[in-house]
Structures are given as C-alpha cells and as structure tokens.
Amino acid sequence: MKKDKRYYETKASEAEYLAWYKTQDWGSYDKPAMTVDNLIFGFDPSDEQLKILLIERKAHPFKGKFALVGGFVEPTESAKAAALRETTEETGVRITDNRQMWQIGAFTDPKRDPRQWIISIAHATFLYPFVSPQAGDDALQAKWFTITHTAENELAFKHPDETVTLDDLAFDHKAIVLATFKRIKESLDVTPDILRVLGETFISTDALVVLKHFDTKFEDYSTGNFVKTYVKNNPILMDTGLFEQNPQKPGRPKKILRFRS
Amino acid sequence: MKKDKRYYETKASEAEYLAWYKTQDWGSYDKPAMTVDNLIFGFDPSDEQLKILLIERKAHPFKGKFALVGGFVEPTESAKAAALRETTEETGVRITDNRQMWQIGAFTDPKRDPRQWIISIAHATFLYPFVSPQAGDDALQAKWFTITHTAENELAFKHPDETVTLDDLAFDHKAIVLATFKRIKESLDVTPDILRVLGETFISTDALVVLKHFDTKFEDYSTGNFVKTYVKNNPILMDTGLFEQNPQKPGRPKKILRFRS
DNA sequence: CAAATAGTGTCTCTAAGACAATATACA
DNA sequence: TGTATATTGTCTTAGAGACACTATTTG
Fold this sequence. Notes:
Two copies of one chain form a homodimer. The first copy, chain A, is an alpha+beta fold. Chain A folds into two domains: about 35-185, Nucleoside Triphosphate Pyrophosphohydrolase (Alpha-Beta Complex), CATH 3.90.79; about 190-260. The first copy, chain A, is about 25% helix and about 25% strand. In chain A, strands 1, 2, 3, 4, 5, 6, 7, 8 and 9 form a nine-stranded mixed beta sheet that branches. In chain A, β8 (about 155-160) and β9 (about 165) form a beta hairpin. The first copy, chain A, is globular. The interface between A and B is large, with 46 and 46 residues. The structure holds a DNA duplex.
C-alpha cells in the first residue's frame, strides 16, 4: 500500500516526515519575495545634526525618487543579517551591538510593490561612527539628509542640493519612516537607543539635539534639568562624572555622559 | 537592436518597464513561504482570568506540541488580513478595531522551520467577546490556557488537563510569546490596548487582574489609586462616572471605566 | 574682561502611593 | 447587623521643571 500525506504527517517519525517532505513539490505554493529596508540614522559631528541616509533611485520602479537603504534577503540569512550586510555595504561600518539596530516591523501589503508580491522587513539603524556613504554595488549613490520638521510638524529631509518630503519617497517608505519615528518616540523612556548615534560617550547638548526630533518636551529642557531628570536614575544612561577636555569653543566644561554598557 | 534590461530599468517609462517586467522569468529567485502566528488573548468572565489560545499539533513537525494560532498568508492579502482571517476561523469573532490586533514583528531565522524557508509575522490579538474556540479546518483543537507566572517569574499556561511551559511550544513560539509580552509591557503607558479583552467598558478589579501579568507595580495598587494614577489623565482611558448595576456579589458598587473611543 | 556656554543650586508644585475612613450590597 | 468589597479622602514625599546663579573657556 502506498504511503500517503496523512501517514507521514501523523504516523511517521519526525525524521521520516522531513525526509518525505523534501521529496514533495511545493513549487505551486505562492510565495512573496522578501526584502529589508533600513532607516539609517547618523549624527554628523561637523554640523551637530541628526541625519538619515537616503538613496536616489536610478531605475524603475520609482525612478528618480529617494528611498531607504534596502535589498533582498538571502535564503541563508535572517532579515536582520541582511540589514546588517546592506548597512556595511553602504557605509563600511560593521554594526556589532544589537542595540544599534531594531526591527520596526513587516510591511506586507501585496500591492506595496508595483512589480510583484514583495514584502519588506523594516529596520532602524543607529549608526556610529558617522561616515560618508560608499558607492553601492548598484551604483546608486546615498546621501545624508538632515532631519527637519515643517510648521505642520511634518518630517522633511534636507540636503544642500534638495529637500525631500515623506511623499517624495519610493514604495511605502513614508509609512516605514513614520512607523520608525513613532517607535523611537514611544520607546524613549524604556531605552533611548537613538542616542547610540553619538557613540559610547556623549555630551548633553548633542543628546538634546537628537532627542528633540522625537519629543517636544526636550525643547524646554535646560541641559542641567536634562541630566537631573533624564540621565540620573535612567537604567540605560549615566553620568561619568568626567568633563570634556580641550574644548574648541568657549563655555563651561561639558559633562561626559554614557550608556551604562 | 534588442532592448535589454538596462533600457527598461532606466530609459523606458514606468508603464513600459512594468509590462516588460511581467514577461521575465523570476522563478529562479529564492523566496520564503510566509505565515502568520497570532497570540490571542481573552478574558474569561466565568473565572475572571486572562487566557491565551493554543492549538495542539496533530501532525509533524512538532507533533503533540502546543502552538500559536497561525497559517499561510495568501498572495492577495496582507499579513494582518491573514491574521484576522485565522482569528475568525478559530473563534468566530470578527475583529474590526485595529487596536485589538498588533503586529509584533517578523521572525525570519532561516532555520526556524525544519521543513523549509518559512518566515512568520507575529501578531497579538486582544479578543472580545470571549468565546469558546471553534474546530479549525485542519481539525486541530484550540483551548484557552490561563496565564500564570512561576516562582522564577517564567510564564506558564494552565488548562485543567495540563500545563504548558514556554519550552513546550512548537517552532520559535517561545520567542514570539516573550517578544509579545515585552511589547505589551513596554507599551502600557502609551496605550494599554491589552485591556480591550475586557470590552468597551470595564471595572477596575478586572483591569488590575489583566495588568498584573505585565507589570508588578499593579500588584500593590488599590483600586482607588489605580483609577487616580492610571485612568485619570490617561489619554486612552477614562472614568464614565457611572456605576455597575445589579452586582451578584456583596460590596460597594463598582465604577465603570472605558476607553475614550 | 566680556561673551559664550553649560553646570549647579533653589524653589514651587504636582502627582504617586500608602493608608484610613466611608459607602453599598448581600445574607 | 456583620461581612465583603470597592470607592473616597487624607497625608506624605519624591521628583519634574522653571529659573536664577555660578563656573570655565575663548578671544
């Protein structure tokens, strides 16, 4: 008697089932292509601004539009590994700290890509050190854009040459950006990992520049109150007790703050 | 001269590009199968306990183990639509409020499924009303398990017949459950959507039963302090000013609380 | 020594949380 | 009338945030 599907699924051993499974043809099942998109944040020390990395698309679809760094996931890697790989390809920086990259979520609308069924796993990366982007394999050039907020409190990304609004972005990257900013904002009290763009140690004024993009309450903070109410008793951040050496600017020496680990 | 890939990608119109794209064979690209897994929470009014819905697997792989409600995503639906569909199939309840279902994230380790490359988009559902599970298509029976915490503060799920620990779960569902509890806990101040298992209106004692599973601070709350410090000034919750009618138990009438919308 | 900048000290006020007192319903 | 249960009221205290003052560096 021929052994059937039901036999392997419920009667056979798991090893026997798996051996049978691999002999079957599952090609008729529809599957989506899987990509990752990565919203890479960096803090430019030259002008002390928080920036994001965008790519100008040279090919269809969305030719001429700007997009997040992204690419296809290989069958041997997780989505996070793919996002890490793409980040290194684009910047040369090899992220090793898990807390510098978050998964934001899966974007799975079957019509999000005009070509075919392509889902994307969105990530946010808090890059450090800050580097100039490298030319990618696909010859698409990436540029750092300063994050700004319009009068209507909408995001816009500025480069000396041009300004990019959320509606100028390719695919559903507007939704990805909004979800990322929302997540960072909501997580600020639990873990202010966005500050990892500043490196292991940092000063309060730079931290405030970064945090103001995510919560307006930081606009009113003096640096003193910031350290008192946000850094002290923060399970993630701490005051080193040290002060910055060799400042290039006038003013009182700056406290050095850091992540606890 | 034959028009090549480069022509369509960079010279042609987008419509022309898409028409060409569909004529190409992309079958050689590796793609993952996509599933959803859904951690369904419910509040059983008969014993006033927070419960989750688990399925006992009757077939390989992980035969005999318990698992979250899940299934494959169709090419015409988003992951959320698939999770909603599976929820209705399993419970008969049709969730219409977006806030009753969250996406937790994508689980994409290529070895998470022993059969082949199968990723899963995890969801959490705050089911209401509470109903007995229906027999699914695949004749797997679902059961409600009470959420408990061991002395080591580890989760365990209890049914009159049996106890299920996190390590008893199929696939990487342990990681999905942990990520879900973490997310709910971290979001508690932003949006206590887990309370939607109680319905539109609810009383403080039931809310505390639910919230205690996610933050130990609620163990020390009196119901009075709970309303004062958590419900009042909460942008999501409010006090209706009304009191419960026709109580079956002795005691002072209970305040009726509710979601603001 | 003036300007710039950020840390330090002080004060006010709100709100969290502990706990006692009170209100309502059942038996 | 006693018991169960939850609300209401009171008190204490910690900490958020405003703001004035002080310390350090540049030029």
